[in-house]
Amino acid sequence: MLLVAFWILYFLCSAIRSNIGIAQTMNKKEGHDLMTLLGLTPKDVSTALALFYVSYVIFDFPSNLIMSKLSPRAWMARIVFATGVVGACFAAVQDAWSVKFLRFLLGLVIAGMWPGMAFYLTLFYPPSRTGKRIGMYFTAAQVSAAVVGLVSAGFQLMDGVGGLAGFRWMFLIYGLVAIVLSVILLWWLPDRPLAPGQIRTRPKWLRWLPATPEALTGEDAVIHYHDLRRVYHSRPWTLRDLMLVLLDWRLWPLTLMYFGVVGVGIGTQLYGSVIIAAIQPQATSIQVSLLFAPIWIMDLIAILLVTPISDRFHRYRAVFFAGAACIQIAGLLTTTFALKNGWARYGGLLMVGFGLGPTVPICMAWSSEIFQRRHGEVGVAAATALVSGLGNLGSVTTTYALYAGWPEDAASGPHQFRKSNLTMVGILCVSIASALVMMALLKVFGNPPSTKLYDNDSASEFEDGAARRETQQRGFGRFHRRSAHRA
């Protein structure tokens, strides 16, 4: 129930966030694309795209902390509602100023959604098993990117209907659907789980929320209570707890990991159709939209293949991350240097898509796993928000300083975006190094709790039962012991 709701809300919000990319090429031959109709320059577009991430970075952290204090379902529904309203308003944009303002506003209202889902998930699952589940709903972004490309072909056929350009219909319809979904989520999303026998009470100011069936009842509730007692016994966090999270060195390698891969991902999402149009100049705008979709199908395949394995061998998440990032590097180099073969360059984009797939879910799952054990509930809320928020400075770099934000590099020709691609290769190398350094440092220093996390004197009493079983039953270590025993 929870994962299905997450998948749908993330699908719609991802579409609203990224459809400005495909709007740049919709109905271009008729002069009804976003840039021509509004008279935008490439710098206007890159600034508008960057402003989204500026506000996202600023408000991601406080939004997630608010969710940890309020009803998670009410806060998530609020995010989707506001995202739908702002997304629909894009149908009325008239100039560069309005596009920039709405992109900044969109980043503000959508902030906290992605780390909020990771935090929400840890209320129901042990952190060491969240990678696969984060990957499950993260596929919504990939399907969304593919569908935005495919469905945009239909919106292009609506160009001129009711006096609206095709991209305006796209903005309007996605926004209205998100508004409807936000209302449904109030009945759909579950509240925090209750301990067996406990009766749910609400403060007066939350009594307007509709009641929802408990996600866990009967024997399921008892099993969940014994496996995840930390969810039921976590104490209210303080500013001191928050400062301990902010000062934890483990936060920064994770942020650098996220910085590189999300920068490449956003660059591909927002400029993929532009790159395809450059390497396949004979393609029509509809053909470009159709060629854009397979990049995200490859991304989806990688998520489904890699994230379950990374959960099973969760002590080696850095290895899975580094391998996927290396595939991205190979794809970027192919797209950059295979100048004589447009289809080979397109194949490079497919490689980038495949490599992107598991990297973000691995970052978020590893952040939850490390900071839940070390800092408890506030650790998950703060770390996932900071890794996501500060890591999205990579998106600011991609959208403002690289690609269309680098006029000399964006000039049409066989070397278009070469320097931007090579810059991203360098940033990915930093991400890979950060992952491997993080794994080595955790082996040296470990990951002990930083303070008293629970409302009981014994922190060990609340060790996750499921996580304890996984430590005993999963990982390469057990495989090596078996091999040594047989030898």
UniProtKB/TrEMBL annotation:
Sequence ranges of Basic residues compositional bias: 477-487
One GO CC term on file: plasma membrane
Primary localisation category: membrane
Membrane found in the keyword field: yes
PROSITE patterns: MFS
Signal peptide stretch: 1-15
Gene3D superfamilies listed in its UniProt record: MFS general substrate transporter like domains
Keywords: Membrane, Signal, Transmembrane, Transmembrane helix, Transport
Gene Ontology MF annotations: biotin transmembrane transporter activity; dethiobiotin transmembrane transporter activity; solute:proton symporter activity
One of the GO BP terms on file: biotin import across plasma membrane
Pfam families reported in the protein's UniProt record: MFS_1
Keyword Ion transport: no
InterPro entries for the chain: MFS, MFS_dom, MFS_trans_sf
Sequence intervals crossing the membrane: 45-63, 75-93, 105-125, 137-157, 169-189, 256-279, 285-306, 318-339, 345-366, 378-402, 422-442
Record membrane topology: Multi-pass membrane protein
Subcellular location: Membrane
Residues in Major facilitator superfamily (MFS) profile domain copies: 1-452
Region listing for Disordered, in residue ranges: 462-487
Protein name: Major facilitator superfamily (MFS) profile domain-containing protein
Species, as recorded: Purpureocillium takamizusanense
UniProt lineage: Eukaryota, Fungi, Dikarya, Ascomycota, Pezizomycotina
